[in-house]
Amino acid sequence: MNKTCDVIIAGGGPGGICAAVAAARNGMSVLMIERYGFAGGMATSGLVNPFMYYRSKTDSKHYLPGSVFMELVKSLSKNGAIEKDGHVFDDEIMKILLDKLLLDAGVEILYHSMVTGAICKDGLISRINVACKEGAQSFEAKIFIDATGDGDLAEFAGFKTEKGRKEDGACQPMTLCFRLGGVKADDWKALDMELNEVFKDGKAKGEISDPRENVLIFRTLRPDVVHFNTTRVIARDGTNSKQLGEAEIIARKQVWELFNAFRKKSPLCRDSFIMKMASQIGVRETRRVMGDYVLTADDVVKAKAFDDGIARSSYPIDIHNPSGTGTVLKDVEGAYYEIPYRCIVPKGSRNLLMACRAISSTHEAHSSLRVMPVVASVGEAAGIAAAEAIKGKIGVAEVDGINLKMKLFRE
Ligand SMILES: Cc1cc2nc3c(=O)[nH]c(=O)nc-3n(C[C@H](O)[C@H](O)[C@H](O)COP(=O)(O)OP(=O)(O)OC[C@H]3O[C@@H](n4cnc5c(N)ncnc54)[C@H](O)[C@@H]3O)c2cc1C
What we know:
By secondary structure, the protein is an alpha/beta fold. The chain contains ten helices and 17 strands. It folds into two domains: about 1-165 and about 285-410, FAD/NAD(P)-binding domain (3-Layer(bba) Sandwich); about 180-275. A hairpin with a 6-residue loop joins strand 14 (about 315-320) and strand 15. Helix 5 (about 190-205) packs across helix 6. The longest helix is centred in the middle third of the chain and has 25 residues, at about 240-265. Flavin-adenine dinucleotide binds near residues 12 and 375.
């Protein structure tokens, strides 16, 4: 199978899905290549939930994400798969709805296939290599979109990337999300307090090795099922198979320790059971692909707007300590900040765009823009930009970011 199409999207997470749908709806033939057998990225494979806040901080009726994300929220709502305020969702139903969203838009989906390399000369990718079940394949397209979360395709093509914080390159820790069923969760505050006491005690006695400062739990759509965003694995690189595998093993051990402590010492969890662990450990941060503009912490906190601002967010800087305990939070001091188009075009790129968390930003700014509604908006912009570049027979850097902003935010 050696395939040619207008746009190839590598990765089917929140960014890749929205890029694929937007490009297809703008008349492009689109192929989305995803390593797992379903779309959704961290939302499904990583069991990440809920969608973080996606409204203006000064006007709660003003939704910030692009239209494809909002359409997904509506579709989840119509199918009873998201709570009323649009945050906690059902990740299994989401898989089904995402297939439909993509196929209805005319996107060709290639699951169970992993992008492993690229041929790139003078900023132009001519083909990519893909490991399919049937063996190594090669694909051509006019525009490529990297939605791998990790910037795999940009790295394979030789574009400039950075990783982690400035002083030592350390990235935010990984977390294996899991859910306990059979929990008495009617009194949420009591449950939260009880679990945190057990956690503290278990840490003091050396029974819990998790370096996190506390237990972080979220409600689910089921009253007795509790979502845990609580394990923490530091000093492992999410772009290295060996280290990623080690992280999975460390995290599963943490789940086991936590579960045993909770069922033994928390009366509210006495009858609980491990309902689900994510198919893969959640990776918060890896590469960032450098573009002509690098989004900074100051841009985020000062709620900066840009002429070519193609995505908006009011989510704070949120850095889980790469070295162990603690989390740094810094609020956006305004309604929202914007992400310029220049952040999604790798420096020197002629036909590669970014549609994932790996966009041009600092470690601090990345900690804010990485959340799902924001990445989805970045993806939608990338999909439209890809179509503009193809229709105008221009390179991706020549796409008019100001025009793109007007198209995305008709206000
Ligand atoms: C533990 C954790 C908790 C989080 N909590 C929240 C939260 O509560 N709310 C929130 O909104 N956000 C949260 N986030 C952030 C958010 O989930 C991610 O940053 C977001 O999903 C990034 O989207 P993406 O499209 O860039 O990447 P991903 O969601 O990682 O999607 C990338 C997709 O590309 C595929 N892929 C990767 N490499 C290749 C390849 N080489 N070839 C083919 N396919 C490939 C992957 O399988 C995946 O489907 C959390 C993240 C983590 C890790």
